Amino acid sequence: MMRLCWLLFLVAAMATLHLALGVPPSARDLRHCPTSCGDVNITYPFGIGTGCFRPGFELICNTTTKPPKLFFGNTTEISYQYPYGYVRASVVFNIATTPGLLGTYSRSWQAPGRVLSTYTTNSLVIVGCGIDVYLFRSHTNILQGYCRSECTNMALMDKKLSGRPCNGIGCCTIDLPGGVRAFRFNITQREETHSVALGNSTIKAFLSDSQFYFNTADLLSEKINANTIGATSLFFSVAITDQLNCSTAQLGLNKTDYACSDGSTCVDQRNQRGYSCTCPADSFDYDNPYLLHGCKQGIPIQFIATENKEYTNIPFPFGLEQGCSAKKKFQLNCTSNQTLIGRPPMQMEVTSISVDEGLVYLDRVDENTTARHFTDYEVDRLLENIFMDDTDFNLSKVYGVWKWSVSNISCETANNNTAYACISDHSECVPVTQSNVYFGYRCKCSPGYKGNPYTRPGCTDIDECSRPNFCKGICKNREGNYSCTGCPYGTYFDPVETKCIPTQPHERRHNIVIGVVIGLVVGTGVLALSLVLTILLRRWKRGIQKKIRRAYFRKNKGLVLERLISSDESVAHSTKIFSLEELERAPDHFNSTRILGRGGHGIVYKGILSDQRVVAIKRSKIVEQGEIDQFVNEVAILSQIIHRNVVKLFGCCFESEVPLLVYEFISNGTLYDILHGDMSTECSLKWDDRVRISLETASALAYLHCAASIPIFHKDVKSANILLNDNFTTKVSDFGASRSISIDETHVVTIVQGTFGYLDPEYYHTGQLTAKSDVYSFGVILVELLTRKKPIFLNCSGEKQNLCHYFLQSLRDKTTTDMLDSQVVEEGNLGEIDEFVSLAEACLRLRGEDRPTMKEVESRLQLLRANITKKIQDESQKNVEAMQLFPSVYDSTSFTQNVDIGMDADSLTQLASTCHTMEQELVSLTR
């Protein structure tokens, strides 16, 4: 007996000496130490008894309780210890109070040896009535948190609050950050009126890392949710705090106190003093970095050649025991009814493993097991922490499915490595990627083989011919492949006997008849179904199109125009609301070859209606409410105007995204094109025609200003908006910017809008649109007719010149003749030209009040036109008389030419045929 005691003393003394020298103890040195207390296992550096623990890690086992409880200091109860640096412990404070007396109670907690710190964010939970709780940083008066708990009627609290998280009624919580090693708090009682049943309520405080659900019984009992308060626990991380960090411990004067064993890794504590030790990723869960030779490397994969015999549903490289898995990360933990992967508390259940696909299917741990159950909120963080430093596992986008690889090297590198995992014949290497990121490689059997590519022989041939009805003919299995040929003539494949058998003659005919009938029935059914579906689809599309068109009709102010047209019988007779189908067919679905021109407010297309009328269709360029309002404005104005020199509106359509207007087709284009078109094909424009065009334009504008039912200001008078038909009759167009006013108004204030070069300076500066603004723009057209120059043209120096300024300056310099068109000078006499120039100058006066009205302009042009006509008639009469006196001098050709001078219609027709030929185009459109 004495010898045994002496032997134990020597072992303890050697262990104590070993620790004093700073060398990590071995498992042999600690074999005499207690390994558990009750249900809790104990691993070094923690321990009970001399020589069994590292300084600062001594535990106390209270054997007076059943079962025994393990304590670290006075207030910290250890409920579980993990060998890789974590413990699960409870921190509880029972505050004894005196009924009827209000007081303030101060409590504090400090990790024994300051080697523990909270692992994640936790909560300080306080259960009690009428209390204020103040949380302070340890050894300071710096407030870190505050909460209040109050109570109401006991029955009401039991009905409304039981089973719900703390909300300040009966209990309250204060959040604690991770890494806390000490704190203190004060509880101050407040005078509060509550039910008699709560008169003996107690105050309890504890730490928790999960949601606490309140129960009114907690106020009167020493238990929380039917458990003792000590059962409420949280995770703490363990650190060696006798040195500042790893560098100090490894290189300092106290190097003998270095806690990490050989083969382990030292890790600094984040933002606080101390360090911890960890084993490499390939080590196993039971390895201990604080013991001598405590970290064991994972078994090299090339030495593994056996399968898990007892657990046939767990294929290699996964395994349950040491030596049965390729690496530590592939080792699973089997409980009574679950297979787990990971380390507590970060564990999940393995439901299935697919070696061929390289996938592991995971699920939450059943909460009825000893492992911790995680809520939905914690699942994402859980998955991120399992194998957080492993590159051989990659969480795929599908929740609960993990991709895995054998090693994070390429197939090419692995194939040249002695540790190449694909050791079976007929196996191949497969790269593992996720979102184009490479994670490593895995193995699979080659096509035509099945089994486990990580064992030898693992991949065996697949007998495809043994699968029922896999080949509906003659099947021959080959190594890694198979062949399938159809049944010979006169035989057919019997799925019951799974072979080819002879076909009887009557059966053959019967089968042909059945086949024909089935084919006809199926074909007819498919045809009928296709027809029905086509009809339904067309009706559905037609209904959708009607809804869309109706929506566009309302958006484009179609209802407003509809009421406007229907309210006036004369307008309803001349203006039609067209359907979208008809206006889409007219310009060949708005083919770009049908574009006639591009105005300030839309594109104009040429088209032919169903009644063979050739029309111009105007389509808005952009879908904006302002553009739609301008189109509506144009329809409203044109529908009320009836004048031979104003373009006629046939109708409109508002069923499309952009509104459409339909006008009469004007064949000879615009005055601008004729005056300023290509000089190589430039048409001659006689002096008489220029006067007549200006007169007809003035007549249309005078009608708008004075004779229309409502005075209308055009606002965009320019040569590009003056159209000429086959007879060169003038048509004023483009009323998108026009404004109508009441009879008693003289002007209207608008946003300045118009074309540069034609814009009235007075309107530009004041924003007041008047009838004289159109007069100014008309004056610019008169100068264009006189000079055949653009409103903005290039002078001899190549500089841009304003035509109006140039014209007025030439009047002052008396050099007007130099800028006149040669044809005007040749055909017009000096008096006519002077009158035309004088009228243009009057229209271009700077002040609007100094300009004539359009009616006055029309009168002066009528007088000028009459004088020119009379002169032409007199000249024609003289030619006729001369021919009668001297018939031999005049032949028929010269007579015809002279007579034509006095016939306006004939001369204009001749000019039209010279400039524009429309017959061929019209014929091609009507085909």
Describe the structure.
By secondary structure, the protein is α+β, with helices and mostly antiparallel strands. The chain has 6 domains: about 10-70, no CATH class; about 85-240, Jelly Rolls (Sandwich), CATH 2.60.120.380; about 245-295, no CATH class; about 300-460, no CATH class; about 555-665, Phosphorylase Kinase, domain 1 (2-Layer Sandwich); about 665-925, Transferase(Phosphotransferase) domain 1 (Transferase(Phosphotransferase), domain 1, Orthogonal Bundle), CATH 1.10.510.10. Helices cover about 30% and strands about 25% of the residues. The strands form 16 sheets. Strands 3, 4, 5, 6, 8, 9, 13, 15 and 19 form a 9-stranded antiparallel beta sheet that branches. The chain has a 6-stranded antiparallel beta sheet with strand order 22-23-24-25-27-26. The longest helix is centred in the middle third of the chain and has 51 residues, at about 505-555. The protein is elongated and about 155 Å long. The N and C termini lie far apart (about 130 Å). The model is unreliable at about 5-20, about 300-310, about 365-390, about 395-400 and about 890-925 (pLDDT under 50).
